[in-house]
Amino acid sequence: MRSYAQCCALAKALDVVGERWTLLIVRELMLRGPSRYTDIRAGLPGIATNLLADRLRQLESAGIVYREEAPPPIATTLFGLTERGEQLRPVLDELLVWGLPLMAEPAPDDAFRAHWLAGPAAHFLSDSDPDGPPLEIEIRAGDEEPAVIDAAGGEVSVRIGSASDPDAVVSGRPQLVLGVLAGRLDLDDAVRRGLTVQGRRQALERLRASAPAAA
Amino acid sequence: MRSYAQCCALAKALDVVGERWTLLIVRELMLRGPSRYTDIRAGLPGIATNLLADRLRQLESAGIVYREEAPPPIATTLFGLTERGEQLRPVLDELLVWGLPLMAEPAPDDAFRAHWLAGPAAHFLSDSDPDGPPLEIEIRAGDEEPAVIDAAGGEVSVRIGSASDPDAVVSGRPQLVLGVLAGRLDLDDAVRRGLTVQGRRQALERLRASAPAAA
DNA sequence: CCGCATCCGGGGCGATACTG
DNA sequence: CAGTATCGCCCCGGATGCGG
């Protein structure tokens, strides 16, 4: 990116991470951990492949991303965040919180990945039964790659992957899943509109939307 | 800006404030309060005037900036941050903190404005004599527009303007001023290299750099 | 002066095709 | 799988003009 050429900490930060796609790449690496090029790309629908390669190079030379040639049996290149890259977490958190209200008005053709719920979930979901057994809810929405919501001891987190023994599996259009999780949509309404819930419905009731202006 | 078209809070935030110059415009409005077009521009060396006009319009329609036609004797347009715009403060703060280490290596032709010190000062300066009388130090560096460092009751802040009765006036090249404030440069060294200090030198000693990796 | 609008050249970006 | 190559477009940068 063309530098702002300003001796200002904010401008210097934007010189490094202010370009288009850059912070979203960091988001993917933060949610996935060390990842293959192709997996990063799958989490960034719309990015041009040359841009992704460019950005990864820039991030690497800025000390934010490291590149590792994994030996067999992985036998591929892995990209991960350095410590300096991890330090961007508060930045992404604040931006995400600020952007939460904007998710209330999604465009009909917006792409969706279930693991993108990780950030919002940490902010607007809480475990209404902290003393209950660990809870696993699998989410399938908008893409082939499912995610799992874990609730245990009052904490709620989201990770990529499938649940081995899920308490419930929720699948359907992103809007419906999002609406239910945000408390904007009644579960019965959502089911009536096409949401599918396998397993115990009560599992879902255990998650409570706590933030006021959630998505 | 072209939307990322992703149903993700972070992507939605970047859709609104991710374009080039946008967050720097917010920075200026945050540091200056409601300002005239020309003054904003003075704080953004390098921006093209049509871009500033474009961005202000976008920010206005995004509900981040309001525009007010001030009546005489001001008789001009004022731009200011709405509440939604003010809520970007934590974002700018985190980005600024992350960018602080990058200020250690400024390019020789980087522009500088004294009021850009406001953010860093709040993070790496502290008042070593909290019970002392209010302190005013005027800073002149890199531009015509001076700034004032206030210290009182242990708090340090920076504002645009001149001090009516400053305890000290520091002027010189940005590098020197920055070096002294960050504790990177000894005051005597800086003076030997061209820094000018009028008034009581002790006033400067009262400010202590507290952060480790400061600029 | 202040707050822009217009014009134009260059480069970042987007999409597709292709390759070791 | 992890990119490179190519091409068109539009955003951006810089200069100038212009009405209130």
Structure report:
The structure is a homodimer. Chain A is built from 10 helices and 9 strands. Chain A folds into 2 domains: about 10-85, Orthogonal Bundle (Arc Repressor Mutant, subunit A); about 105-215, Nonspecific Lipid-transfer Protein, Chain A. In chain A, a hairpin with a 6-residue loop joins strand 4 (about 135-140) and strand 5. Chain A has helices spanning about 10-15, 20-30, 35-40, 50-60, 85, 90-100, 120-125, 175-180, 185-190, 200-205, and strands at about 65-70, 75-80, 125, 135-140, 145-150, 155-160, 170, 195-200, 205-210. Chain A is of the alpha+beta class and about 220 residues long. Helix content of chain A is about 35%, strand content about 20%. Chains A and B meet through helix 1, helix 2 and helix 6 of A and helix 1, helix 2 and helix 6 of B. The structure holds a DNA duplex (20 and 20 nucleotides).
Key attributes of the depicted protein:
2 domains, homodimer, two-stranded antiparallel sheet, 215 residues, globular, alpha+beta, Arc Repressor Mutant, subunit A, 5-stranded mixed sheet, DNA-binding, Nonspecific Lipid-transfer Protein, Chain A
Describe how the helices and strands are arranged.
The structure is a homodimer of 215-residue chains.
Chain A: H1 9-17, H2 22-32, H3 37-42, H4 49-61, E1 65-70, E2 76-81, H5 83-86, H6 89-99, H7 118-124, E3 125-127, E4 135-140, E5 147-152, E6 155-160, E7 168-171, H8 174-182, H9 187-192, E8 196-199, H10 202-205, E9 207-209
Parallel strand pairs in A: 4-7
Antiparallel strand pairs in A: 1-2, 3-9, 4-5, 5-6, 7-8
The first copy, chain A, binds a DNA duplex (20 and 20 nucleotides) through residues 1-2, 19-21, 36-38, 41, 46-53, 76-77.
